[in-house]
Amino acid sequence: MLPNFVTAVMGDALRHGHVDAIVRNRRVVATASWLAPGNAPRPWQQELRVSIGSARGLIKGRNRIKGIKLLDAMAKKHPEDPHWYLGLLGVDPAFQGKGLGGTLLTHRLEECDASHMPAYLETQKPENLPFYERFGFKVRDEISDDGCPTLWTMWRDSK
Q1: pLDDT tens digits, residue range 102-130?
Q2: Where residue 139 sits, what CATH number does that domain have?
Q3: pTM, whole model, 2 decimals?
Q4: Residues 119, 121: Cα–Cα separation, whole Å
Q5: pLDDT for 7-46, tens place per residue?
Q6: How far does CA 92 lie from the centroid of its chain?
Q7: Domain range holding 44?
Q8: Shortest CA distance to 85 belongs to which of 9, 28, 149?
Q9: Checking phi first, is residue 82 left (phi over 0); if not, alpha (psi -120 to 50) or beta?
Q10: Could you give phi then psi for residue 27, rounded to 5 degrees?
Q11: How many domains does the chain have?
């Protein structure tokens, strides 16, 4: 499922926001996919395109119904106020722990602060909570549904 999800989210960010990347030795080793203010939550046509792209990986999965429910619960919690939306932050495992994720976050969050725009994200990894909190994000909601992994929504006011 992961390649389908990443392709859908990054493609959406390329059309309606920004994909920031760090390259080492001509290889992309870290990316951050952001939707610009006014593009999140997505209009229904855009959400449908991303959901169908993401769902391609769920079709054959044994937990597809749970996955679709989780995506729906995420969409319902997405804030309506204008904000930058971090849809995906990824660092190649060989380069993790070297500050690349923080560099990507800092780059866009500086723009958020300069334009007085908040930022929003979701994460399924509890170990990510302290990482994002270091950058000013605060847990807003916890989504837990029918055996799905817990998901946390996080908000950061501009500084």
Answers
A1: 999 999 999 999 999 999 999 989 999 99
A2: 3.40.630.30
A3: 0.80
A4: 7
A5: 666 566 767 678 899 999 999 999 998 988 876 655 555 5
A6: 16
A7: 2-156
A8: 9
A9: beta
A10: -130, 130
A11: 1
